[in-house]
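ARCHIVE CARD
Drawer: 12
Card no.: 0347
Subject: one protein chain, sequence and derived structure
Cross-reference: see card 0346
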Amino acid sequence: MEQRIVSPELLDNLDSDDPAAIRSRRDLRVINRIMQGEKWILSQLTPMRNITRVIELGAGEGLLTRKMHTARPDIAITAVDLAPRPPELPANIEWLQDDVLEINYVYDGSTAIVANLFIHHFENVVLEKWSTKWSDAGAILLAEPHRSVNSIRLGWLMYPFVNHVTRHDMRVSIEAGFRLGEIHKLLGNHWQWQDDCNCVGSLRCKGVKR
Protein backbone atom coordinates (compact mmCIF):
# COMPACT_ATOMS: atom_id res chain seq x y z
CA MET A 1 0.00 0.00 0.00
CA GLU A 2 2.76 2.38 -0.94
CA GLN A 3 0.67 4.74 -3.08
CA ARG A 4 -2.73 6.27 -2.42
CA ILE A 5 -5.49 4.86 -4.63
CA VAL A 6 -8.63 7.02 -4.82
CA SER A 7 -11.63 5.01 -6.07
CA PRO A 8 -15.41 5.64 -6.08
CA GLU A 9 -17.33 4.60 -2.97
CA LEU A 10 -20.63 2.78 -3.36
CA LEU A 11 -22.47 4.96 -0.84
CA ASP A 12 -21.82 8.09 -2.89
CA ASN A 13 -23.82 6.65 -5.77
CA LEU A 14 -26.86 5.37 -3.85
CA ASP A 15 -30.09 7.29 -3.31
CA SER A 16 -30.32 8.59 0.23
CA ASP A 17 -33.47 6.54 0.88
CA ASP A 18 -32.00 3.27 -0.47
CA PRO A 19 -32.14 0.68 2.36
CA ALA A 20 -28.50 -0.26 1.71
CA ALA A 21 -27.50 3.40 2.05
CA ILE A 22 -29.50 3.83 5.26
CA ARG A 23 -27.82 0.76 6.73
CA SER A 24 -24.36 1.88 5.60
CA ARG A 25 -24.79 5.33 7.16
CA ARG A 26 -25.71 3.59 10.41
CA ASP A 27 -22.57 1.44 10.10
CA LEU A 28 -20.49 4.56 9.54
CA ARG A 29 -21.80 6.19 12.70
CA VAL A 30 -20.53 3.18 14.67
CA ILE A 31 -17.18 3.20 12.84
CA ASN A 32 -16.80 6.94 13.49
CA ARG A 33 -17.25 6.37 17.21
CA ILE A 34 -14.68 3.58 17.17
CA MET A 35 -12.11 5.64 15.25
CA GLN A 36 -12.65 8.65 17.58
CA GLY A 37 -11.90 11.25 14.92
CA GLU A 38 -14.72 13.56 16.00
CA LYS A 39 -13.64 13.28 19.63
CA TRP A 40 -10.08 14.24 18.68
CA ILE A 41 -11.21 17.21 16.58
CA LEU A 42 -13.31 18.53 19.48
CA SER A 43 -10.41 18.09 21.91
CA GLN A 44 -8.16 20.19 19.67
CA LEU A 45 -10.70 22.84 18.71
CA THR A 46 -12.14 23.57 22.15
CA PRO A 47 -9.05 25.30 23.61
CA MET A 48 -8.30 27.33 20.43
CA ARG A 49 -9.58 30.68 21.70
CA ASN A 50 -8.13 32.53 18.71
CA ILE A 51 -10.52 30.62 16.42
CA THR A 52 -13.89 32.32 15.91
CA ARG A 53 -15.06 30.59 12.72
CA VAL A 54 -15.05 26.97 11.58
CA ILE A 55 -15.53 25.68 8.04
CA GLU A 56 -16.46 22.00 8.15
CA LEU A 57 -15.98 20.14 4.88
CA GLY A 58 -18.10 17.08 4.14
CA ALA A 59 -20.41 17.62 7.10
CA GLY A 60 -22.68 14.70 6.19
CA GLU A 61 -25.49 14.26 8.70
CA GLY A 62 -24.25 17.19 10.80
CA LEU A 63 -23.16 15.08 13.78
CA LEU A 64 -19.77 16.77 14.25
CA THR A 65 -21.36 20.14 13.42
CA ARG A 66 -23.74 19.81 16.37
CA LYS A 67 -20.96 18.69 18.72
CA MET A 68 -18.77 21.66 17.79
CA HIS A 69 -21.71 24.02 18.33
CA THR A 70 -22.27 22.56 21.79
CA ALA A 71 -18.59 22.65 22.74
CA ARG A 72 -17.95 26.14 21.35
CA PRO A 73 -21.23 28.07 21.00
CA ASP A 74 -19.17 31.24 20.50
CA ILE A 75 -17.82 29.98 17.16
CA ALA A 76 -19.57 30.73 13.87
CA ILE A 77 -19.89 27.44 11.97
CA THR A 78 -20.28 26.94 8.24
CA ALA A 79 -20.91 23.32 7.24
CA VAL A 80 -20.53 22.24 3.61
CA ASP A 81 -21.93 19.11 2.02
CA LEU A 82 -23.77 17.98 -1.10
CA ALA A 83 -26.53 16.65 1.17
CA PRO A 84 -29.43 18.91 2.21
CA ARG A 85 -29.44 20.65 5.57
CA PRO A 86 -30.15 18.11 8.35
CA PRO A 87 -33.39 18.64 10.26
CA GLU A 88 -33.23 20.35 13.65
CA LEU A 89 -29.78 21.79 13.04
CA PRO A 90 -29.44 24.98 15.14
CA ALA A 91 -30.59 27.98 13.11
CA ASN A 92 -27.36 29.93 13.63
CA ILE A 93 -25.29 27.26 11.85
CA GLU A 94 -24.77 28.07 8.19
CA TRP A 95 -25.29 25.07 5.91
CA LEU A 96 -24.05 25.21 2.32
CA GLN A 97 -25.44 22.48 0.10
CA ASP A 98 -22.63 22.70 -2.40
CA ASP A 99 -19.52 21.04 -3.78
CA VAL A 100 -16.57 21.81 -1.49
CA LEU A 101 -14.48 22.43 -4.60
CA GLU A 102 -16.76 25.29 -5.60
CA ILE A 103 -17.06 27.31 -2.39
CA ASN A 104 -15.10 30.56 -2.22
CA TYR A 105 -14.51 31.61 1.35
CA VAL A 106 -12.03 34.15 2.57
CA TYR A 107 -9.95 32.39 5.20
CA ASP A 108 -8.01 34.27 7.86
CA GLY A 109 -6.15 33.58 11.06
CA SER A 110 -9.37 33.23 13.05
CA THR A 111 -10.70 30.43 10.81
CA ALA A 112 -10.24 26.70 11.32
CA ILE A 113 -10.84 24.18 8.55
CA VAL A 114 -12.18 20.89 9.89
CA ALA A 115 -12.93 17.55 8.23
CA ASN A 116 -13.58 14.07 9.55
CA LEU A 117 -13.05 11.14 7.15
CA PHE A 118 -13.47 13.36 4.12
CA ILE A 119 -10.36 14.59 2.32
CA HIS A 120 -9.30 11.05 1.39
CA HIS A 121 -11.98 11.25 -1.32
CA PHE A 122 -9.74 13.60 -3.33
CA GLU A 123 -6.68 13.06 -5.48
CA ASN A 124 -3.35 14.56 -4.41
CA VAL A 125 -3.49 17.25 -7.11
CA VAL A 126 -6.75 18.60 -5.60
CA LEU A 127 -5.30 18.69 -2.10
CA GLU A 128 -2.23 20.53 -3.35
CA LYS A 129 -4.51 23.20 -4.86
CA TRP A 130 -6.31 23.54 -1.54
CA SER A 131 -2.99 24.39 0.06
CA THR A 132 -2.97 27.73 -1.76
CA LYS A 133 -6.67 28.34 -1.21
CA TRP A 134 -6.41 27.75 2.53
CA SER A 135 -3.03 29.41 3.07
CA ASP A 136 -4.35 32.15 5.39
CA ALA A 137 -6.42 29.85 7.63
CA GLY A 138 -5.41 29.81 11.29
CA ALA A 139 -5.75 26.08 11.83
CA ILE A 140 -6.54 22.80 10.06
CA LEU A 141 -7.88 19.74 11.87
CA LEU A 142 -8.21 16.53 9.86
CA ALA A 143 -9.07 12.98 10.93
CA GLU A 144 -8.56 10.47 8.13
CA PRO A 145 -8.02 6.74 7.55
CA HIS A 146 -4.50 5.54 8.23
CA ARG A 147 -3.32 3.71 5.11
CA SER A 148 -1.76 0.54 6.48
CA VAL A 149 -2.07 -3.22 6.45
CA ASN A 150 -3.08 -3.06 10.11
CA SER A 151 -6.04 -0.83 9.23
CA ILE A 152 -7.15 -3.34 6.60
CA ARG A 153 -6.97 -6.15 9.17
CA LEU A 154 -8.95 -4.11 11.68
CA GLY A 155 -11.56 -3.53 8.96
CA TRP A 156 -11.91 -7.27 8.46
CA LEU A 157 -13.01 -7.56 12.09
CA MET A 158 -16.00 -5.36 11.25
CA TYR A 159 -17.13 -7.42 8.23
CA PRO A 160 -19.65 -9.61 10.10
CA PHE A 161 -21.37 -6.53 11.53
CA VAL A 162 -21.70 -4.25 8.48
CA ASN A 163 -23.37 -4.51 5.08
CA HIS A 164 -21.79 -5.03 1.65
CA VAL A 165 -21.66 -1.27 0.94
CA THR A 166 -19.70 -0.56 4.10
CA ARG A 167 -17.36 -3.51 3.53
CA HIS A 168 -16.49 -2.22 0.07
CA ASP A 169 -16.20 1.44 1.07
CA MET A 170 -14.12 0.68 4.15
CA ARG A 171 -11.41 -0.95 2.03
CA VAL A 172 -11.57 1.85 -0.55
CA SER A 173 -11.27 4.50 2.19
CA ILE A 174 -8.19 2.89 3.70
CA GLU A 175 -6.50 2.60 0.30
CA ALA A 176 -7.18 6.32 -0.24
CA GLY A 177 -6.04 7.23 3.25
CA PHE A 178 -2.74 8.71 4.39
CA ARG A 179 0.46 7.80 6.12
CA LEU A 180 2.28 9.94 8.64
CA GLY A 181 3.70 13.06 7.02
CA GLU A 182 1.80 12.80 3.74
CA ILE A 183 -0.83 15.44 4.48
CA HIS A 184 1.92 17.88 5.48
CA LYS A 185 3.60 17.47 2.12
CA LEU A 186 0.36 17.90 0.18
CA LEU A 187 -0.88 20.98 2.03
CA GLY A 188 2.47 22.69 2.39
CA ASN A 189 4.39 24.62 5.02
CA HIS A 190 1.93 27.44 5.72
CA TRP A 191 1.28 25.73 9.06
CA GLN A 192 3.23 24.02 11.82
CA TRP A 193 2.14 20.39 11.66
CA GLN A 194 1.61 17.57 14.12
CA ASP A 195 0.19 14.17 13.27
CA ASP A 196 -0.21 10.77 14.82
CA CYS A 197 -2.32 7.66 14.41
CA ASN A 198 -4.21 5.67 16.99
CA CYS A 199 -4.60 1.91 17.40
CA VAL A 200 -7.92 1.76 15.52
CA GLY A 201 -6.74 3.12 12.18
CA SER A 202 -7.35 6.85 12.54
CA LEU A 203 -4.70 9.35 11.44
CA ARG A 204 -5.08 12.77 13.10
CA CYS A 205 -3.40 15.80 11.56
CA LYS A 206 -3.26 19.29 13.09
CA GLY A 207 -1.86 22.35 11.37
CA VAL A 208 -1.49 25.68 13.18
CA LYS A 209 -0.54 28.90 11.39
CA ARG A 210 3.15 29.67 11.73
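Annotation on reverse: The two ends are 32 Å apart (CA to CA). The mean pLDDT is 94.
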